[in-house]
User: What shape does this take?
Amino acid sequence: MRSHRRGRIILLNGASSSGKSSIGQALLPLLPDPWFLVPVDVVGAMRSTVHTRVLDDEQVGEMLKRTRLGYHRAVAALAWAGNDVIMDYPLSERWRMEDLLDVLDGYDVTLVEVRCAPEELDRRERNRGDRPVGLARSQTGVYAYGECDIAVDTTSTGPDACAATIVGALDEIPWPKAFERLRRRDGCRLAQ
Assistant: This one.
């Protein structure tokens, strides 16, 4: 029986409309091995739409949290089976990071911050038309952790160049990586 190799995980963390999905797509042809791009939006799109009743804010919040908890575990399952995974996911709520630190303990996670100027985020939201303008600005928690392995800025740099920067830096990241540093910090509690 051969030894089991867990897959690697690249977590693209940034505000809505910062360019995570475009960078994820640009990474796929640059990475040397097969990788799965698993954006949280794709998992959310698999959920049925409620037609017969309206959910109140609390019910919507609970449903979204269950979806995100399932997303964390789906990524962990893919990586556990030896698959390399790119996550496209805003760590906009503290519990998301805390849960991922637990669920992905023992996995090789590369945390990539995807940054973009607020004015550009607003412009992108207006052009997309599928997100309220100001959503990205409200997601201030995505960069609150004080740790990352790689940072890219999409304000004036395209997804292909950002993806090339990420691929070029992957083998140069010192250990312990950001996830392990966060896990060790203050008994697994994140900085305020």
About this structure: DSSP finds eight helices and five strands in the chain.
